[in-house]
Amino acid sequence: MLKTPDSRATSMFINKTAALDSPAPGGPLADDLRIGDMVFIRVTARPFLEVANATNAWTNHVGVVVDDSGDEPLIAESTFPFSRTTSLSRFLQRSEHGHCAIARLTRSLTDTQRKALKKAADHRLGTFYDTGFNISSRRQFCSRFVREVIEEATNIQVGHVETFATLLQDNADPNLAFWRLWYFGRIPWQRRTVTPASLLRSPAVQIIFDSQLKGAA
Fold this sequence. Notes:
By secondary structure, this protein is of the alpha+beta class. It is built from nine helices and eight strands. A hairpin with a 6-residue loop joins strand 3 and strand 4.
């Protein structure tokens, strides 16, 4: 049985939480966000950077808006050590150079679906993080969390599930040395997973904001 690298994950992830102490402004995005919107960022913990590299994408973390009624939107996310809600400003503060993108379902949500989405997220809060990125685990990881919350509430599938083998085959330099170390010498090639990049590239969503494109304008 493959051992999940929880002890190593603790040291790699926990050092990245200090930035949460000082909230940053929500910026011009706050008033535009709706329940069900997906917020993509890039965090700098080493495993997440390797996820971005493996998927040929800048993003490596995603959360979903579950409340837009307060001073700023509330983001539900699966993060280390367990899934929780986070204010938009604190969520964005964790992103490298402030990079972020917002994706919205191409089909508008009904009031019933918005309530169902919040309920689906609430049901998963407090679930421990899966450092093995296994879609069949009892634990959660960010892209799986968002995908399942949206699907449960709307019957819309965002992103696609793939094995590690198919995920890495299109990458010219997937850094297999890191993944062998992460999985204690044996990469689980047939393990099924889903990635933030897959959600962002899904035909079921449209990108309504991209900080990198905005900066280039």
